[in-house]
Specification:
alpha+beta; four-stranded antiparallel beta sheet; globular
Length: 333
């Protein structure tokens, strides 16, 4: 079993003998000891304190060793268990609204679909990266979509420098639950994009942001492609985690290409992480903050989308997208 923190909820996760995965609140409903301190035999989780046994997918208590033959079995005892599905190497956990009760097994098929990274050929490589962020999820997400920090946060010979800043114009359009930076030629001051020029094909990049926390990037160069899914997940009220999953068929035959991608990708993520650590020092004092146009417009759209979705959930009415149509933004980076 493994443990994790999600939305302030301690979780214990594991893989059942049939290959499926489960996610439970890491707390026995009897006395509160973490279930991760106990045992898992491939089909049931046993609490270390009094030996209560739980079916991990539903959370139902299957055995209480201290009961005698004179006791009636309390069949309505459940540990908290959450719908959990594996996709692209991640465990996606569905957390219901507070106070809504447990998600019954018979309604789990009606839950929102689990996100999946698009890929464009069967033969490809992939890699995962992750890092904790000492900030709330909103700061993590607007940092994720910020188009102007690159030359300062990600200064490197293999990426770009502050001396490479130039004016850019990008076109955006609304999509369900988010917005898209429409297909465009990638930045000329980014070395990794320049490498794709060896294929002699036009290069196009599309970037999508989708609520609540997902950024998709797709780069196409003829039959060659690279895609990534980056998420910022709230772990506790003041902390979150960034995860990056990338897949590609570019430079497929290059030796050690996956190790190289992990090395440079890891440095890239650590630069973001360090910036969030430093920003957290300033945010301790609750300073006044501001957002400008046009470089901060994606951040404004995020907050507007978030409000619109919350209003739709509360009223039951269709979500009103804050973008009326395509928008062109300009900034320097």
């Amino acid at each position: 079993m493994a443990t994790a923190m999600l939305l302030g909820i301690p979780l214990v996760l594991g893989r059942k003998e049939d290959g499926g995965i489960f996610a439970m609140r890491d707390s026995c409903p009897h006395r509160g000891i973490p279930l991760s301190c106990g045992w898992f035999d491939g089909s049931a989780v046993t609490c270390k304190y009094h030996g209560w046994v739980f079916e991990p997918e539903s959370g139902q208590c299957m055995e209480i060793p201290s009961l005698t033959s004179q006791d009636s079995y309390p069949r309505r005892i459940y540990a908290a268990a959450f719908p959990c599905q594996e996709r692209d190497g991640y465990a996606w956990v569905y957390v219901p609204r507070p106070g809504s009760g447990r998600v019954r097994m018979e309604v789990r098929d009606a839950l929102p679909p689990v996100p999946q990274l698009p890929t464009f050929s069967d033969r490809h490589r992939s890699a995962h990266l992750t890092a904790p962020l000492p900030c709330n999820v909103d700061h993590g997400i607007i940092g994720l979509m910020d188009p102007a920090h690159g030359p300062f946060v990600h200064q490197a010979w293999w990426w770009r420098s502050r001396h490479s800043i130039h004016e850019k114009e990008k076109h955006f359009e609304p999509i369900p639950q988010g917005f898209r930076m429409s297909a465009h030629a990638p930045s000329a001051n980014s070395a990794p994009y320049k490498l794709l020029g060896v294929y002699g094909e036009p290069i196009e990049t599309t970037i999508d942001f989708v609520l609540p926390n997902r950024r998709y990037e797709t780069i196409r160069c003829g039959p060659k492609w690279f895609t990534s899914l980056t998420t910022v997940t709230p772990t506790t009220p003041g902390n979150s985690r960034i995860d990056v999953y990338g897949a590609w068929n570019v430079f497929y035959g290059v030796p050690f290409v996956t190790a190289i991608a992990r090395f440079f990708g890891g440095r890239f993520v650590r630069q973001d992480q360090l910036t969030m650590v430093q920003q957290a020092e300033g945010l301790k004092f609750n300073p006044g903050l501001m957002l400008i146009d046009d470089a901060d417009r994606p951040a404004k759209w995020y907050f507007a989308l978030k409000r619109a979705r919350l209003e739709a959930d509360e009223t039951g009415r269709p979500m009103q997208h804050p973008m009326d149509g395509p928008v062109t933004l300009r900034w320097r980076s």
